[in-house]
Each structure stands twice: as structure tokens, then as C-alpha cells.
Amino acid sequence: MFMSPRKAADGAFLPEDFVVPTLVAGPRFQIRPITVHDVVKDYGAVIGSLDRLAGRFGPEWGWPDREFTFEQALIDVAWLQKQGQLRRSFSYVVITPDGEGQLGRIHVAPSDEPGSDAVVVFWVRADEENSALEKELEAFVREWMETAWPFEKVRFPGRD
Hints:
It is a single chain. With about 160 residues, the protein is an alpha+beta fold. It has a six-stranded mixed beta sheet with strand order 1-2-3-4-5-6, with helices on both faces. It starts with about 25 loop residues before the first strand and ends in a 5-residue tail after the last strand. The protein contains four helices and six strands, in the order ββαααβββαβ. It is about 35% helix and about 20% strand. β3 and β4 form a beta hairpin.
């Protein structure tokens, strides 16, 4: 079987020598890996977008729960941070250029469907739904996956 030189030889999600992006800055937002230090802003972004996120991810994801607590948010964010450290999946916060506000999130994970390398899910706060920012973020994320990540085929559930 032919293996793409962009993928790890052992079939791992990412080649061992791939340097995972840690900060991407643009004029309207910055993207950086999520950490437990983001939990307060992230919780606010999730709670403020509960209906939109529940409709987007649906019951099969089980997230976010209507009774989503701050403690659950802390556990979720810590888990996402650890997954990134282990190079299993990568979650990023989308923040304002000054770093003061959270606009959304981006998740990059292995795809469980044949024919694709990765699945990318991203969202913006409910107050940014269908905004120029959301459109700009989508265009950016698609190009970022093409140019900065070692994937040949990426799925964008809910957007393709």
C-alpha cells in the first residue's frame, strides 16, 4: 500500500517530526492551543452558545449538556489540553487579537472514516453566527489545513 510522505510511516495521526502549530495570528483573531487557563472564557463562550452548539453537535456527541457546569468545563478543557500534549487530537481557542475575548474553538482529530486523514470541527460564539468573522475563520481554517498540516483529505462535518 502506498503511504503518503505527508503521513507517518506507522500510520499514526501525525508524523513524529511534524511541528504542531502553536500560534497563528491574523488581523481579526488569533488561534492557539487550548489550556486550562482558558476555562473561564471558554465556559462563557460555550454557555453563551449552548443552543447553537447543541444543535450543531447533536445528541450523538452528548455535548454540551444543558446542565453543563464550570467543573465539567474544567475537566473538558484539561482533557483537550492533554490530548494535544499526547498528539492524539488538537484543540485551539480562537481569541480576539488582544487575547481578551474568546470567539470560538477549532478541533483537529483523526478521521474514523476511510478516505480521509482528519476531521476538523470549529465554531464561533452565537453572537458571531453567520458573521463576516465566521466566514473569514472558515476560509482561514480550510487554507490552514491545506498549507500547514500534513493531511491529504480533511472532513469538515456540518460544513461540507
